[in-house]
Amino acid sequence: MNPRPPFPSMPFMEPFTPLLRLFQGMTRKGPGSEASTLRALALCPLPPHPAVADLGCGSGASALLLARTLQPLQTPILALDADGTALDDLWESAQAQGLLSQVKPCSGDMANPDIPPGSLDLLWSEGSIGHLGWAEGLRIWRNLLRPGGVMAFTDATWFEDNPPSEARRAWGDWYPTMGTEEANLRTAMDVGLDVLGHFRLPSQDWWDYFDQAEARCQKCDGDESLAETIAGMRGEMNLYRHTGHSYGYVFYILQKA
Ligand SMILES: C[S@@+](CC[C@H](N)C(=O)[O-])C[C@H]1O[C@@H](n2cnc3c(N)ncnc32)[C@H](O)[C@@H]1O
């Protein structure tokens, strides 16, 4: 029988409890959109019955869309995250959308997932590789792909060599190894990945995410235990408003050579 809620959380998620509480119920926990997911999917060559996993799937925005879009291929999507509460939400949405037979939520660590090496045709991930670091993430995830398998994922990326100092300072804390598109693609090719495509997410993908985040901030305003987290989230939105021209999310579509 397929696993059901409640899904366990991995112990290393404990320090993120306030952020997970703030993000409760959000359908996207990072910038993205259906249009961007589908644009990336169209760049992925797939065999007739692909093995697919969405790592760091959150509450399932992309996993559910992949399941719907790939339904004719009758392929189950392994949807893995370390946050059990997000997987509970994913399960509820999958049930409501009649997709439970196509999506398999799984609590785990995307740095060491319970997926056999060389078994995936498509590894999906939106907004999560930064938790592993670009080079380390590529190395671990490439190992999960079959030869010719594809990984498609978004990551925060510098758009300028000399970004404004406030952006440099903030991202230096959040993601010290954040690269430019050029540097990231060079590293990908160095570890044996061919570049099938890459594109920047439109800023609307950020504002749609921030709209959901701001709605949650307003709902949680006054909860002292979340005050610091709310201030941090609003600082992030403000930073994007003023310096978002210098960074953003890029979708990378890479194939195991
Ligand atoms: C920015 S959110 C993106 C979630 C989802 N892909 C989306 O776009 O809505 C990053 C996700 O990575 C998950 N995560 C962080 N570290 C992880 C790890 N080591 N293993 C599995 N999931 C992890 C978090 O729980 C969170 O759901």
Largest sheet: 7 strands, mixed
Number of domains: 1
Element pattern in H and E = HHEHEHEEHEHHEHHE
Level-1 CATH class name? Alpha Beta
Instruction: Please state how the strands of the largest beta sheet are arranged side by side.
Output: 3-2-1-4-5-7-6
Structural Rg: 18 Å
Instruction: Count helical runs.
Output: 9
CATH superfamily: Vaccinia Virus protein VP39
How much helix, percentage-wise, in residues?
25-40%
CATH architecture: 3-Layer(aba) Sandwich
Low-confidence stretches: none
Give the assembly state of these chains. Answer: single chain
Which percent band covers the strand fraction?
15-25%
SSE inventory with pairings:
Blueprint: H1 17-22, H2 34-41, E1 52-55, H3 61-69, E2 77-81, H4 84-96, E3 103-107, E4 120-126, H5 134-144, E5 145-158, H6 165-174, H7 181-190, E6 193-200, H8 203-220, H9 227-243, E7 247-256
Parallel strand pairs: 1-2, 1-4, 2-3, 4-5
Antiparallel strand pairs: 5-7, 6-7
Helix pairs in contact: 2-3, 8-9
Bound molecules: S-adenosylmethionine.
Explained architecture:
The protein is an alpha/beta fold and 257 residues long. It has a single domain (30-203, 248-256), classed as 3-Layer(aba) Sandwich (Rossmann fold). 40% of the residues lie in helices and 21% in strands. It contains 9 helices and 7 strands; from the N terminus they run H-H-E-H-E-H-E-E-H-E-H-H-E-H-H-E. It has helices at residues 17-22, 34-41, 61-69, 84-96, 134-144, 165-174, 181-190, 203-220, 227-243, and strands spanning 52-55, 77-81, 103-107, 120-126, 145-158, 193-200, 247-256. The chain has a 7-stranded mixed sheet with strand order 3-2-1-4-5-7-6, sandwiched between helices. Helix 5 (134-144) links the parallel strand 4 (120-126) and strand 5. The radius of gyration is 18 Å and the shape is globular. The mean pLDDT is 97. It binds S-adenosylmethionine. S-adenosylmethionine binds at residues 28-30, 32, 56-58, 61-62, 81-83, 86, 109-111, 126-128, 131.
